[in-house]
Amino acid sequence: xxxxxxxxxxxxxxxxxxxxxxxxxxxxxxxxxxxxxxxxxxxxxxxxxxxxxxxxxxxxxxxxxxxxxxxxxxxxxxxxxxxxxxxxxxxxxxxxxxxxxxxxxxxxxxxxxxxxxxxxxxxxxxxxxxxxxxxxxxxxxxxxxxxxxxxxxxxxxxxxxxxxxxxxxxxxxxxxxxxxxxxxxxxxxxxxxxxxxxxxxxxxxxxxxxxxxxxxxxxxxxxxxxxxxxxxxxxxxxxxxxxxxxxxxxxxxxxxxxxxxxxxxxxxxxxxxxxxxxxxxxxxxxxxxxxx
Length: 292
Ligand SMILES: [Zn+2]
Description:
The protein is an alpha/beta fold. The protein has one domain (2-46, 82-285): Glycoside hydrolase/deacetylase (TIM Barrel), CATH 3.20.20.370. The protein has nine helices and ten strands. It has helices at 2-19, 33-38, 43-71, 115-124, 141-152, 172-190, 206-214, 235-244, 260-275, and strands at 84-86, 92-94, 102-110, 130-133, 157-159, 196-197, 218-219, 224-225, 253-257, 279-280. Strands 3, 4, 5, 8, 9 and 10 form a six-stranded parallel sheet that branches. A two-stranded antiparallel sheet has the order 1-2. The longest helix has 29 residues, at 43-71. The chain is globular and about 45 Å long. The relative contact order is 0.17. It binds zinc ion (ZN). The site of zinc ion has 6 residues, from strand 3.
């Protein structure tokens, strides 16, 4: 009991520390997406339920996939077989014998000046990533075209809400609008409905979780990220911590942003991760239990 209280207190302190960050940018995210989450009540129960669902659907999926294999189709856009599952700590774990030394790259708050160059660099490096976009950054034709180009290079476009507001401060109607209006805009621009969702600051509500699942989307926070924290808004410092943090482990979900210093550090981060033996995970291989 004492240990639980201590962990809870620690989590609350981290949330407070994250919230007291007064940088002008919108992000007051915590270094690990998990700690914010664990401070919320009922979290553990919900997530256990979710992983049970995942396991059930997983076995159904394998049966379906076996049937599909027998039919030998050569259709375009045939969904690839899922090889990784999102854990309750937001990391990715291999389903069967998929390579375990992988990490997932994610770029939030796009497109805000650097996203296209970041996508081109990643493309050049043959490294996958999810770009989580905001509606406020894609209101004009030029930025919409950038999102389309990033999508057409093969990077999944994720929903990071229209206005980057904390979902916890919004009514259910407002949350619906923040999420669904951006789904519609992304689909209009790319021709494809987004499959991934990440809440601003990693702060989710029960309502948003249900809505995301109903929309057939996969909700994720992250394992670690630093580019929004003081001391890491420089190429060298950011590269060093992203590659050498103790939090780097197989399946880690890496949070980065559309920022100048992250753009500058990106190539070194990818190469540093590869030097450590990690390949960038293709998001298409992640199981989405809510997808029909
Ligand atoms: Zn954000």
